[in-house]
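In this supplementary section we document a worked example of the pipeline. Step one takes a protein sequence of length 330 as its only input; no multiple sequence alignment statistics are reported here. Step two produces a three-dimensional model, which step three serialises into C-alpha cells for compact storage. The input and output of this example are shown verbatim.
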Amino acid sequence: MKRNEMIAGDGKTIKKKTKFTLDDLQLFFLSLPTLVWYLLFCYLPMFGLIIAFKKYKVAPGKGFLYSLFNNSAWCGFENFQFLFANNKETTFNMFRNTIGYNIVFIVLGVVLPVTLAIMISHLHSQKVAKVTQTAMFLPHFLSWVVVGYFVFAFLSTDNGLVNRIIMSMGGQGIKWYQKEAINYWPFFLIFLHVWKTIGYSMVVYLSSIKGIDESLYEAAMIDGASKWQQTKYITLPMLKTIMIIMFIMAVGKIFNSDFGLFYRTTRNSSSLTSVFLTLDVYVYNSMFNNPRPVYGYISAAGFLQSVLGCLTMIAANAIVRRIDNESALF
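The serialised model returned by step three reads:
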C-alpha cells in the first residue's frame, strides 16, 4: 500500500488516506488460498478447545453446537486430571519417554542431517549425489503402518529374519516383543525415527548449502584452506541460522510424540509399555479403557501439549536471543 504524506506549516506530518493499488489486489488474491487454509484448518478448530473444559456428551439427533452448549456441563480442569490419574510410575514413564525421546531426536535431528548434507555436497559425481539424496528421502513418504509390518517381518519371534539368522548361527531366538528384549527397543525406536526423518531434514540443509556463495570457497582454496577448514569456517557459520530455526521449531514439539512410531512398531505390546508409553499413546489407549466418553480427555491432552510446547519454544527462542539476537526466530 502507498501512503502520501504532506508537511503542514507547523512542521507536523499529515497522513492522507491509504490507497489500495492494483499490485496490492494481486498480492491479496495470491495469498487468499493460504489465508483460507489457515483459517479453516488452524484457527477455526481452536474453537473446539472448549471441549477440554466440559463433560462433552453427544445429544442424539442434535448437532455439534447443541451438544456442546446445551448437553455438556462445565467441569473446569477435571479433564486434565486423567493424565495424572494413574500410579506415579506410569505417569513418570509417560512424561519421561515423551521428553527423553524428543531430546534425543532433537540432537540427532540437527547433527546427523547437517553432517550428511555436508558430505553429499562434497561428492564430485552429481549422479551419485542425486541417487543418495533420493534414497535417503524416500522413507519420509512411508506410512508407519507399512514400516510397522516391515519391523515385524524382521523381529517376529517365529519367522522373523533376525531370529532366523541368529538360529542359523547356532544361537537361540529372541522374543523381541516380550520383556526379555525391552533393553533393545529404545535403540530400535531411535534408529527408526532417524531413518525415516533424516532425509527431509538433510534436504533442507543441503538446499541451504547450495545457496552459499561459491566465491567464498574459491577464496578459501586460494588461501590453502582444507575441506575441513572450509566446512568449519564457511559452511557451518552459514548454516547456523537455519540450524537454530530448526532447533527452536523442534523444541516446540517436545511434548508431542510420533504416535505411529511408538504404537505401530511396538504393536502396543503390554510387555514393552515402560519403553514406548508416551503422552499420545496413553491418550489413545485411554479411549478403549475408559467406560465414559473421552472427548474431553483428548482435547485436554492436546491443549496441554500445545500450551507446554508454545512455552518451551518461547523459552528456547529467548535463550537464543540472549546469546545471538540475529539468529532468533522471533
